[in-house]
Amino acid sequence: MPHTMSKLETARDFERREAAKIPASCRPGFHLTPLVGWMNDPNGFCYYNGCYHLFYQYYPYNTVWGPMHWGHAVSTDLLHWDYQPCALAPDTAADAAGCFSGSAVPLPDGRLLLLYTGVQPAATGHKEQQAQCVAVGDGYNFTKDEANPVIPTTMLPEGYCAVDFRDPKIWTENGKYYCVAAARHQTEQGTILLFESLDGHAWRYVSVLDSSHDALGKMWECPDFFALDGVQVLLVSPQEMRATPDSEFHAGDGTVALLGRYDPVTHAFARQKAQAVDYGLDFYAPQTTQAPDGRRILVGWMQSWATANTAPHPKPWFGRMSLPRELHVRSGRLYQCPVREIETLWRDKTELTGVTVSEPSELPGIHGRSLDLTVVVDAAASPDCRRFTIRFAKSTMLFNEIRCDLDRGELAFDRSHGGSRRDAPHTRHIKAVPQAGKLTLRLILDQDSAELFVNNGERVLSAVLDTPLEAKGITFQAEGAPVRLDVVQYRLE
Ligand code: FRU
């Protein structure tokens, strides 16, 4: 009898053939891109059997979003990723319209459990439904639970919509499994619900952890929940946010860290602070895991829904992950720094101490598109300098710009002259106040992406660049009076 390929076999066969046609030179240096086709959210991020596993929302057949599969890659250093065969395809009644975002946890018997959202197609008299499903395997091949969905929409408390119930993030605590999932309440909008289980398969609803109350956006997506430095952190990715006057949040899809206290007995979360996770143009749906050495590592989708569909898709892949970041809470704020593994990519250090800049100038040895560049602006030693500007990925015609208004303690990240032909958001403004007289800017370029870490991780902005790779120039300029800088650059390889 002829063998009919399953959806998963078809996807694996397709990606194997198509990926062979994509040269490594067509991808960034150390940011993960999909094996073929489309990528969105990071999924199932975990350390398992000696390496990091990172799954992702995946549509292998085109560079636009489609019925969701899970792509898969593994790494030992979070920078070099080895592609693995597609892990999940939408091939059962519980997930026929898509295997949406989810997470992973190792089981006591050594297997890996995936908890993800199965989307059931609309049927006569019913809208599409989202519910939580389980698949268990050896890290590479998974078997879906026959009882899926294991967290059905009937488990939702009163007032929640079965069409918006997704993105479970699982962890173990005191011998039990817990997960947070996003659900939309008819009036409260974005809400994070907590569920618990003794075995990862049979679940029960526990409590509401937090809601938007229709203030921090509408539907919340992709929650994560963990203790860090004595504080409880709830991460959410809200849709349809309103911009706030203090430029903490911009309009549209955002990423928010809610910091507070968690009572593990009553399962109540008391929010004390809300801040943005990333203030840039391309960042969404971050997920964390804990490294074997205890570090809390975060990775996000380095793209935005607002522009993903109108962006040019010139490559045989679309979408990428951010550089993984180490998280900390300091003085009640979430701080993020590039994973320290990036130091293994450092080559050719260029160090310039106490340089003074006024007219637009290049600095000796400072240029390129794959680099880790730290600029410390000595604001205290330059009291009359009002504005300081760095242009990067610069050619004669094109440039991207970081403008620091030292008077107002603000910074603008602006890619509007970077080569885009689209009428899309290209600028973000954030607070950037010198600390002890110094403003520290760390810019990581990986060809066509930029990640800017301000004041040692106090704020981060991520953006994809439209600028051709030949534009390698970097210039510095001060207005009002000269500025004094310390500059350290490493080429990344
Ligand atoms: C976030 C998201 C998730 C969903 C997935 C679908 O970007 O909308 O809520 O699970 O993408 O691909």
Compose a concise summary of this entry:
The chain has 493 residues and is mainly beta.
Helix/strand layout:
Blueprint (H helix, E strand, L loop, with lengths): L6 H13 L17 E12 L2 E9 L9 E7 L6 E7 L10 E8 L5 E9 L8 E9 L4 E3 L15 E14 L2 E10 L3 E9 L5 E9 L8 E9 L2 E8 L17 E8 L4 E9 L7 E7 L5 E6 L3 H4 L8 E2 L6 E6 L2 E6 L7 E12 L12 E9 L8 E8 L5 E6 L4 E5 L12 E5 L6 E9 L2 E6 L4 E6 L8 E7 L3 E10 L1
Parallel strand pairs: 1-19
Antiparallel strand pairs: 1-2, 2-3, 3-4, 5-6, 6-7, 7-8, 9-10, 10-11, 11-12, 13-14, 14-15, 15-16, 17-18, 18-20, 20-21, 22-32, 23-28, 23-32, 24-25, 24-31, 25-26, 26-27, 28-29, 29-30
The structure holds beta-D-fructofuranose (FRU).
The site of beta-D-fructofuranose has 13 residues, from strand 1, strand 5, strand 9, strand 13 and strand 17.
Helix content: under 10%
Could you say which small molecules are bound to this protein?
A: beta-D-fructofuranose
CATH superfamily of the largest domain, by name, is Glycosyl hydrolase domain, family 43
Number of strands: 32
Can you characterise this structure?
With 493 residues, the protein is mainly β. The protein is built from two helices and 32 strands. The chain is 3% helix and 51% strand. The strands form seven sheets. Strands 22-32-23-28-29-30 form a six-stranded antiparallel beta sheet, with no helix packed on it. Strands 4-3-2-1-19 form a five-stranded mixed beta sheet. The model has no long low-confidence stretch (mean pLDDT 96). The structure holds beta-D-fructofuranose. Residues 40-41, 57, 68, 100-101, 117, 166-167, 221-222, 284-285 line the site of beta-D-fructofuranose.
